[in-house]
Amino acid sequence: MSHRHVPERRRLRQLGDGTKAYASLSDRIAVIDVKSQTVTSMIDLPDVGRVALSPDGWRGYASSYSANQVNVLDLATNQIVDRIPVGSEPGGVAMTPDGRQAYVANAKSGDVSVIDPASDRVVATLPVITQPNDRAWGVQVAPDGRYAYVRLDSEIVAIDTSTNTVAGRVKEGVFPTGMAITVDGTKAYVSHHSDSVMTVLGSG
Fold first, then answer.
1. What's the Cα-to-Cα distance from 54 to each of 16, 58, 174, 200, rounded to whole Å?
2. How far, in Å, CA of 181 to CA of 143, rounded?
3. 1, 42, 82, 168: least buried by Cβ within 10 Å?
4. 10 phi, psi to nearest 5 deg
5. What CATH code would you report for 9-202?
């Protein structure tokens, strides 16, 4: 099977060796050969949110928001090998650079599930919202692994990955939709859904 369509970048994750990429679609995950830019296979997964890949390239973690779970993928066989119950309506998933922790933003329950990849189980649940109607939409880990940044409706929450506690909050514009962190971890660039403004946060 071969397709030329390559999905949007924010839903795409590439292996560290650059050979394959995994893109979450609405009801499946596309496995992409990077060199040929073709879809080589599909993994059926209803209501898939985001995918995170382990640094060693052996495992993938894909959220399924209707099932309130994270699916563990064997990247060698492209099979689902485990399912981890998390919070309500999980979306964003991100791993630390050392592969020791995975963070899942649960939109409806307004918390973050911390997964230990060694056991594929949730080891901590961190409440992050302060307003009753707020949502935890996405999460991203800084390149140095020190902090995980969670996007809420109107603020960014920083989690200290060494203690799994909330380290700080920054009020943002309405509905921050995307974030890019510099390689040295000192700045984060945040875009917003409701306006054309991009803000720059100091994260070092």
1. 9, 6, 32, 28
2. 7
3. 1
4. -70, -15
5. 2.130.10.10
pLDDT one-digit tens code per residue, 140-198: 999 899 999 998 887 889 999 999 999 988 876 555 556 666 666 666 656 555 555 44
pTM listed for this prediction: 0.83
Token representation of residue 192? 């917003």
Residue 97 amino acid letter: P
- Lateral strand order in the sheet of 111-116: 90-95, 102-106, 111-116, 121-127
At residue 55, φ and ψ (nearest 5 deg) are -60, -30
| Percentage with pLDDT > 90 across the chain | 56
14 SS3 class? strand
The rounded distance, in Å, linking the Cα atoms of 168 and 160 is: 9
Confidence (pLDDT) at 8:
36
Q: Phi and psi (nearest 5°) for 199? A: -105, 155
Q: H or E stretch including 29?
A: strand 28-33
Token pair belonging to 101: 């922790």
3-state secondary structure of 130: coil
